[in-house]
Design goal:
By secondary structure, the chain is α/β, with parallel strands linked by helices. It has helices at 8-17, 33-49, 107-123, 146-158; strands at 21-23, 58-60, 72-77, 80-88, 128-134, 162-166, 174-178, 186-190. The protein is globular and about 40 Å long.
Length: 201
């Protein structure tokens, strides 16, 4: 939206088409500066204040103020309670990065992330924890490196149930992982979901 210059009517069209959960971060999130970040968040806040409770949409990624902790949403749907959080590992400019949910890729950065996830899961004993990751992997690559797989498995071990990753612009493999840490006995990784709509090559 504001971060990528998408007009309001296109966002409303996506909502009308059935999208009701949005993440705001990716490598273009701050292309339009601080104003773009604020306008984007405000659009969704204003939208939710203008519709009924059942029509409200969920969003994560842009903070209400600089330096806030990671944003997340608790979603209740069809008898399930879902915790949804979204982070990006890559951004085109470091400007205003304290305003959106970005995550470093060093071992220390990731250790801190694992600790946050474990704490969040303990504070919110939900049915499903979904983490969307805009990853620092090359675009248009079909093969997932082992290091990336190991990282996502560590996210599952920390308390995430579904890793929903993107950035490469192409669909990569997905993986069902057996786990005794969930009553469903399985967890799920989508290494790259590709694009719903693409203006790329």
């Amino acid at each position: 939206h504001g971060g990528s210059g998408i007009p309001d009517d296109q966002v409303k069209a996506a909502i009308k088409a059935g999208f009701d959960v949005f993440f705001f971060f990716f490598n273009h999130t701050n292309d339009q500066g601080l104003e773009g970040l604020k306008v984007t968040r405000k659009f969704f806040e204003d939208y939710n204040s203008s519709v009924s409770e059942s029509e409200k949409i969920y969003f994560a990624g842009i903070k209400a103020k600089s330096g806030d902790d990671f944003t997340y949403q608790i979603i209740e749907k069809n008898g399930f309670t879902v915790l949804f959080m979204a982070i990006t590992e890559v951004y085109n400019s470091p400007s205003y990065r304290s305003w959106f949910d970005n995550q470093g890729t060093t071992d220390e950065n990731r250790k801190t992330l694992f600790e946050k996830i474990t704490k969040l899961k303990k504070e919110h004993p939900v049915d499903i924890f979904i983490l969307s990751v805009h990853c620092a992997e090359p675009e248009y690559e079909r093969i997932v490196p082992k290091k990336r797989k190991d990282f996502y498995h560590s996210l599952l071990d920390s308390g995430v149930d579904i890793v929903w990753a993107n950035h490469p612009h192409v669909i990569q493999e997905w993986e069902v992982v057996k786990s005794d840490k969930t009553p469903y006995k399985t967890k799920f990784i989508m290494y790259s979901v590709g694009n719903t709509i693409s203006g790329q090559r």
